[in-house]
Amino acid sequence: MDFLQMLKANIKEILQIHDIKIKFPENLTDIEITDIYQKYVDNVKKYLLNIVHKERIGYFSDNSQKKSIYAYAYWIMTAKLIGMELDEKVFRILKENICGCQMEDGLCWDESIVNLQYLNGDGWGARHFMPHYFIAIERLGIKARYSLKYVTPFYKNDILKKLLDELDWTHPWQSSNVVMNIGVSLFYERERFQNKEAGKAVKVLQKWLMSHIRADCGMWGEGNLKSKSFKYALVRGAYHMYSFLIYDNIDIPFKEKAIDLILGCQNKYGGYDFQANSSACEDIDAIESLIRLSLLTPKYRHVEIRNSISNSLQWVIQNQLDDGGCVFRLGQFFDYGSINMTSNKNESNLFATWFRTLSVCYMYDFLSNNIREYIDLPGYKYPLFR
User: pTM of the predicted model, to two decimals?
Assistant: First the structure.
């Protein structure tokens, strides 16, 4: 980073700090950690219940004019994560709207948000929704109506390997989204439909990941580790990949290198980005990976990792607003792929609330050895202690 870039970054950080009044993390006792967690969860419950009381279930934010399948999914995913019970009416609404969206090819359809990105994107859209869909229906105790025909081309080993080889790994986060969407779907087919061909494809994916992991950082991507932006992109990408190995008890090599890199990405406020107001994605990508890698190497930098997670917990809760919901990034308008999935500056939305809450739950469970009921599938939400 040259002098002008550094100057711009510092000015931007100063303005952000002045605008949103970020607090520095402090040393916390176990009791303080529990109190922070409980207060956070109680406020999230208030937020979710208020959505129901206002008859706004299915709306992404107060800014949304139409309902979306993403919003229904995030509501149930968040509610069940923190142990909320569903009354019969809410359960029926969620079941009808989430389960009824799947098409015969296995993908889900939602007229209210369909656009070119929904059809073709991997960072948001039909393929991206599927890992969320699996969690939502599992939380409702339901299996997908249709098998996932859209992944059948990848049962041919050469097609999946060719795709993995041809992805642009100089942009690891973008490429990892493609892998995440395909991989989670293959695992769902293997686990819930007992599909042996999907199982073979999973092995192809795992073999590729093991043969392409970098020895200098324990992650996937093509670029120079001296580049700050590339290092952060590596962390965001690796988050999408680790579960495909951990779930099947495949030992990840170079774990210590990965831990070193993640710890080096944390800023002085507790977030895991060079910006002061790190986003929900940037934070959880580092938080979950750091925790899982630490559990696999419990003696390596253990105190530093616990301190890092404690600091991050204090940062993440600052993204919760007075209504109990959370923002994706403090001080900024948020556009999540569709005009019906936006939120104004410092306005709660269900995606951010779910992702922030998942981060808080992972951090609390790690720091307190708490056992929680997660969904036992690779992807966005699977158990820490298996």
Answer: 0.94
CB atoms within 10 A of CB 100: 11
* Residue 129 CB neighbours (<10 A): 24
Sign of the dihedral defined by the CA atoms of residues 346, 352, 354, 360, in that order: negative
pLDDT at residue 13 greater than cutoff 80 = no
DSSP string, 68-114: -HHHHHHHHHHHHHTTPPPPHHHHHHHHHHHHTTB-TTS-B--TTT-
Residue ranges making up the domain that contains 259 = 3-368
In terms of C-beta density within 10 A (0-12 exposed, 13-18 middle, 19 or more buried), how is residue 202 classed? buried
pLDDT of residue 24: 80
In a domain, 374, yes or no: no
What total of structural domains would you count in the chain? Answer: 1
Report yes or no: 277 and 329 within 8 Å, Cβ to Cβ: yes
pLDDT confidence bin for 378, thresholds 50/70/90: confident
The CATH number for 73's domain is 1.50.10
Q: Does residue 386 lie in a domain region? A: no
Asked if 148 and 188 touch (Cβ cutoff 8 Å), the reply is yes
Residue 379 in domain: no
Bridging pattern class, strands 334-335 and 342-343: antiparallel
Q: Given the structure tokens 């769902």, which residue do they identify?
A: 188
The C-alpha atoms of residue 260 and residue 37 are separated, in whole angstroms, by 27
Residue 288: inside a domain: yes
Which residue type sits at 376? Answer: D
Element (H, E) at 343: strand 342-343
pLDDT higher than threshold 70 for residue 219: yes
In three-state secondary structure terms, 58 is: coil
Report d(CA 150, CA 106) in Å as an integer: 6
One-letter amino acid at 142 equals: I
